[in-house]
Design goal:
The protein is mostly helical. 73% of the residues lie in helices and 0% in strands. The N and C termini lie far apart (42 Å). InterPro entries: DPS_DNA-bd (IPR002177), DPS_DNA-bd_CS (IPR023188), Ferritin-like (IPR012347), Ferritin-like_SF (IPR009078), Ferritin_DPS_dom (IPR008331).
């Protein structure tokens, strides 16, 4: 459970919805940050015939994720809560599996697909409650995140065929 700020927000989103959405976004933030770290790790450590392609692709992906985690954290703050921001908090909240950089390039791609799918599922879990709360800002954020992650999964899968 996230720590709430000590000010009242009266913008049409109930406190119950605000708590549920913020906690869902905290899980999304943790999953996204864990995916950022995994992608950056693989960027540093990829080897093999696809080195240049994967190295550059992973850099594009982790750069996008670096911007995304900021947007997610800022939405948590706008809802009136303290955003998680430590490795220990992320470890408790994230469902993304860790892998070392000493991994075959093809396995890196497979592991990134799995991790993006975890993030997609986490984002989808929040949509219904944000819709019920009439929280268009969170819905817009989630729609944008889903679009990016689904496209990334498609691109990564294309490398395996």
């Amino acid at each position: 459970m996230l720590k709430q700020q000590f000010f009242e927000i009266n913008d049409g989103i109930t406190q119950e919805h605000r708590v549920t959405i913020a906690n869902g976004l905290a899980a999304l933030l943790a999953d996204s940050y864990s995916l950022y770290l995994k992608t950056h790790n693989f960027h540093w450590n990829v080897t093999g015939p696809m080195f240049n392609t994967l190295h550059l692709m992973f850099e594009t992906h982790y750069s996008e994720l670096a911007l995304a985690v900021d947007l997610i954290a800022e939405r948590i703050r706008a809802l009136g809560f303290i955003a998680p921001g430590s490795y220990s908090e992320f470890a408790k909240l994230s469902k993304v599996t860790e892998h070392s950089g000493d991994t075959d390039a093809t396995d890196m791609v497979k592991y990134l697909i799995e991790a993006h799918e975890v993030v997609i599922k986490t984002a989808r879990e929040i949509i219904a409650i944000a819709d019920e709360a009439n929280d268009q800002v969170t819905l817009d954020l989630l729609t944008q995140r889903l679009q990016v992650h689904e496209k990334t999964v498609w691109m990564l899968r294309s490398l395996l065929r």
